[in-house]
Amino acid sequence: MEKRLFLLDGMALIYRAYFAFIRNPRITSQGEDVSAIFGFLNTLFDIQKKYTPTHLAVALDVSGPTFRHELYPEYKANRDETPEAIRFAIPVIKELLQILNIPTLELAGYEADDIIGTLARQAQQHQYETFMVTPDKDYAQLVDETTYMLKPGRGGGDPELLDKQTICEQWNISRIDQVIDVLGLAGDTSDNIPGVPGIGPKTAQKLIATYDSVENILANTDKLKGKQKENLETFKEQALLSKKLVTINCEVPLSLSPDQLIPGEPNHEALKSKLAALEFKTMLRRLYDEQPIESSAPVPADDLFASATETASASTSAFNTLNDISHTYHAVTTAEQRQQLAAQLLKQEHVCFDLETTSLDVKEAQIVGIAFAIKPHEGWFVHLPTDPDEKQAALQPFLPFFEHPAITKIGQNLKYDLNVLFWNGITVHGTMIDTMVAHYLIDPDQRHNMDHMAESILNYSPIPITALIGEKKRGQISIEDVPLEPLVEYAVEDADITLQLWQHLKEQLSTKQLENVFFEIEMPLLPVLANMEQNGIMLDTETLKNQSLQITQKIEALEQNIQTQAGMPFNINSPKQLGEILFDLLRIVEKPKKTKTGQYQTNEEVLSELAPNHPIVQEILQYRQLAKLKNTYLDALPNDVFAATGRIHTTFSQAVTTTGRLSSQHPNIQNIPIRTEEGRHIRQAFIPQPGYTLLASDYSQIELRIMAELSGDKGLQQAFQSGEDIHAATAARVFDVSLTDVTREMRSKAKMVNFGIIYGISAFGLAQRLSIPRGEAAEIIKQYQQAYPGVQDYLDQTIAFAQQHEYVETVTGRRRYIRDINAKNRMVRSGAERNAINAPIQGTAADMIKIAMIRIQKILKEQSAKTTMLLQVHDELVFELAPDEQEQLIPLIEAEMQQAIPMKTPILIESGIGNNWLEAH
After folding, report:
1. Which long-range contacts (CB under 8 A, 24 or more apart) does 516-521 make?
2. What is the pTM (predicted TM-score) of this model?
3. CB 900 within 8 A of CB 848
4. In the prediction, which pLDDT does 305 show?
């Protein structure tokens, strides 16, 4: 059998995993950041699954100095403190590797690359095929005929296998050992290896191509000129030292040989327990494909309210399951039983319910049954007939419950159930409680699905739907075809667990002072959003069709023009072909950027830098923009029209963004482009029903006004109170000129600063956005801080509050947790500070429009208005307006938007009316 040795660079993979999740870390219910552990294990398990190594080991670094520090005390001296999450992860990963019975190597005085280098050289002598799993470029020096680098893929993509030929091509070298020469000359800022000043990787490659090695370059400096010659002669010793520092030591005294690196059988019980404690539910299922033990039969249907319990059987799961818990779940299948249950429900103050349906599309979903729970571990499942008339008759006894205004309805993702019931002719009234939204408020960064909450809060693992209907790729059946007994267990468990979750979540809402946001904003908003989704908005598909034809003509003309300039036909949509045309054939730039696989970079950022000087690049960017517009919107939106209504019914999500803003999907209305003329014209296709118009009411510069309010800055407030152009007013203060002398360029820069401050923009970021030197950007920010001192004071106070409490709040009390605000790592901490600054402002804007929506919907209902609210997009509300209600309703709508959260700073609403959304906006 062929011997395949896989050597994992532990610390490099741990860091990579940590930063891969930096914007959306995996946080456990105990508040631990387990991103690095999760990512590392994913890589490890993927390696084992895809490559089935015969031999496997993980090499780790030991804290403390190495032989390189003896050579150069400043080695790695520039590195930030290790992030807290990584310090937490390392001992956990070591424990997991022990549980997994995977050899782990570490040795004082040496680094992981030295250990791996030594093992790779030993393995070569014993006919192994060796794969070094690492994102670290230094390992390229170790690649040979039987030793490869395996770089983990980005974003879950396939790993990149680098052999000797690929390395030589990527590094533009003729021999593998020249990797060391290139690294020695160029240095490595991440490890604080100096190299030679003024020589980067590209220059180093050219010098090595000419002179073969560092030593030979230094022996031939008389053939060089200028600063390059001077630096190489001045920093000769530094160049040789750098080469030593980057050279991997392949003679480390190890206690294990490659033959001993055979992974053993994992301790499965310990592994299950550890993964459960880390709340890695999906990973557990993937590893063990555990299905719940077949459950015992439900309580007989003729004894709906019996108090009898079932005997729980032991489960091998890391979490409790239904088999571990005594429970009484009833099947309701007859008319008499339905009447009994309906009467019982009407006696309750709170009832949890959950629908079992055939589809995630609320308009198409057929209700298979309804589960109810009024206390833990007991519940009922009403199994409905498949015949439509019989189904409606079976639902009739429950109408009084659903319509009862005094009975609180509890559910998980409750809006889905409200909408399914609506499309089946049932309207739900009463106070709503959604455990998904409650959990979202308590910790926006977590996952909010029921299974995750059950595991993290109740230490309980619910029955997976695949246990009933099978996997997608293995002949999945419809839930309608599931036998009654397992269906009852599955369905009632959902309602039961949701009820139990609410008992825990309501305490957390109280402890974190989030009851007001939950009961006064999010829950009253839920039926408002359901109503908007039910209303939908009409779409003129002919308009989109005509626009698509016009865009197609423009795309074809651009394609022809681009290929004419290229001098040959090629596939513009192929990054590889495009790169070859631009950089090999046309040579539009001397040193084109390449990807890590050696392909030319042709992404938007790269092309945008080149566009000003190259007409063909400008047209390629325009081509891409129009093609995306056509494929994503013009041709796709008609597919979202529901035939029965002729309308698009988007879905609004309350539990997605971390700041409290709504998002939408199917389709994503929020992303319809407005910055280009062609993009704006898409809004022409959104129209009212005949005899109506569209009204768009938009908060003007709301985040800047909230910044003025929260900071209390007199200058900023005065500018808004006097009705000045805020960007011109800022420009006048920053550039110390009168309002009348503000130029368009000054206003543009001031506008960027105004909005950038809200997002914690740095001098570097501002310089990039305005294409100005960093010094000038720093000076503009300094002048802004002097012009509006209250703003900087507010930002400093906000960061200080976050550092003390690890969260920030909106005006209403909505929280955003800032767990990395005290991180030692500068990059991580800076990102956390930006979030701390932005969250109260953006979150307050979100709360403001939500409160306005609740109040406006109440007015429309009280007045029995024909006008309906259709869309919420960023800071804008869109209505289908009855013309005879226009004079009365527009002032009321604007007043509710302005007064949603009382502020001293004036809140301006801009409203427009039109025969389509573009006209109204």
Report:
1. 516/812, 516/813, 517/441, 517/812, 517/813, 517/814, 517/847, 518/437, 518/438, 518/441, 521/812, 521/847, 521/850, 521/851, 521/854
2. 0.75
3. yes
4. 47
State the Cα–Cα distance between residues 296 and 294, nearest whole angstrom: 7
Residue 27 shares a structural domain with residue 150 = yes
Which residues 6+ apart lie within 8 Å of 371 measured at CB? 353, 354, 355, 356, 379, 380, 381, 382, 491, 492, 494, 495
Q: Are residues 254 and 315 in the same domain?
A: no
CB contact set of 175 (below 8 Å; sequence gap of 6+): 168
Q: What is the pLDDT of residue 293?
A: 32
Per-residue pLDDT, 802: 96
Q: What is the pLDDT of residue 292?
A: 35
As given in the structure block, the two tokens for residue 200 are 């980067």
Q: What is the CATH number of the domain that holds 473?
A: 3.30.420.10
Q: What is the pLDDT of residue 868?
A: 98
- Token pair recorded at residue 629: 């517009």
Q: 56-92 as b/e, with b when 16 or more CB fall inside 10 Å?
A: bbbbbbeeeebebeeebeebbeeeeebbbbbeebbeb
Residue 487 to residue 383: CA distance in whole angstroms: 9
Q: Please, what is the Cα angle at 836 between 787 and 804, to 5 degrees? A: 105
Nearest to 479 by CA among 493, 495, 490: 490
1 SS3 class: coil
Q: Which residues have CB under 8 Å from 650's CB, separation 6+?
A: 533, 536, 640, 664, 665, 666, 667, 668, 669, 871
Domain presence at residue 370: yes
Query: Which residue do the tokens 């480390």 mark?
Result: 252
pLDDT for residue 309: 31
Residue among 116, 496, 115, 535 nearest 329 (CA) = 496
Residues 319 and 400 reside in one and the same domain = yes
Beta bridge partners of 9: 59
- In which residue ranges of the chain is pLDDT below 50? 290-303, 305-317
Q: Is residue 520 part of a domain?
A: no
Contact 635, 821 (CB under 8 A): no
DSSP 164-227: HHHHHHHHT-SSTTHHHHHHHHH-BGGGTB---TT--HHHHHHHHHHHSSHHHHHHTGGG--HH
Cα–Cα distance, 632 to 56 (Å, whole number): 45
Tell me, yes or no, whether 309 and 413 share the same domain: yes
Structure tokens at 740: 């009348």
* Distance in angstroms (rounded) separating the CA atoms of residues 867 and 754: 36
Q: What is the pLDDT of residue 764?
A: 80
CB 135 within 8 A of CB 113: no
For residues 93 and 100, what is the distance between their CA atoms, to the nearest angstrom? 10
Interatomic CA distance for residues 259 and 270, integer angstroms: 27
The reported pLDDT for the residue numbered 195 is 87
At 289 the pLDDT is: 65
- Nearest of 291, 668, 625 to residue 489 by alpha carbon: 291
Give the per-residue pLDDT at 1: 52
Q: Give percent helix, percent strand, percent coil of the chain, each to the nearest 5.
A: 55, 15, 35
Dist. CA 658–CA 661, nearest whole Å: 8
Which sign does the torsion angle of CA 222, 224, 230, 232 carry? negative
Q: Do both 365 and 408 map to the same domain? A: yes
Per-residue model confidence (pLDDT) at position 391: 96
* Alpha-carbon span 479 to 472, nearest angstrom: 13
| Residue 546's CATH number | 1.20.1060.10
Domain presence at residue 641: no
Determine phi and psi for 409, rounding to 5 degrees: -100, 125
Which residues partner with 909 through β-bridges? 699
Q: How many angstroms separate the CA atoms of 295 and 709, rounded?
A: 58
Owning domain of residue 581: 538-626
Instruction: List the alpha helices (DSSP H) in 642-743.
Output: 677-681, 702-711, 714-721, 726-735
Claim to verify: residue 508 and residue 576 sit in the same structural domain: no
Whether 494 and 557 map to the same domain: the answer is no
In-domain check, residue 240? no
Q: Are residues 418 and 651 in contact, defined by beta-carbon separation less than 8 angstroms?
A: no
